[in-house]
Write a structure and sequence with these properties.
Elements (H helix, E strand, L loop, with lengths): L3 H21 L18 E4 L5 E4 L13 E4 L2 E3 L6 E3 L3 H12 L2
Antiparallel strand pairs: 1-2, 3-4, 4-5
């Protein structure tokens, strides 16, 4: 029988692998906030089937076919206007909330 830490590590590895496969298929892995460009308004949305798309406010749900480009762990570039933006991943958001709760 594996120790609890080994089981947890194995499950975490499996989850990371599933998230990687989901992203490769265009499925939103829910590991960060959806993006919205502050300059041009292009935004990400998730379809009812879980696919990550981009759209604009006047035509919500109509996929433009454009995809935000990930430049670093939490830095993305808008494919429409090239605006760079920083987003909080779930881990960064959790750490920020923990810091704030200690104040």
């Amino acid at each position: 029988m594996k120790p609890p830490d080994a089981k947890l590590h194995e499950l975490a590895s499996q989850l990371a692998g599933l998230q990687k496969r989901a992203k490769a298929l265009g499925v939103f892995a829910n590991d960060r906030e959806l993006l919205e460009c502050p300059r041009c308004g292009l935004m990400e949305d998730v379809t009812s089937t879980g696919l990550l798309i981009t759209c604009r406010a006047p035509a919500l749900g109509d996929d433009t076919g454009l995809r935000f480009v990930q430049l670093a762990d939490n830095i993305f570039r808008c494919p429409s206007c090239a605006q760079r933006m920083e987003v909080l991943t779930a881990e960064l958001e959790k750490a920020r909330k923990q810091r704030e709760s200690r104040k």
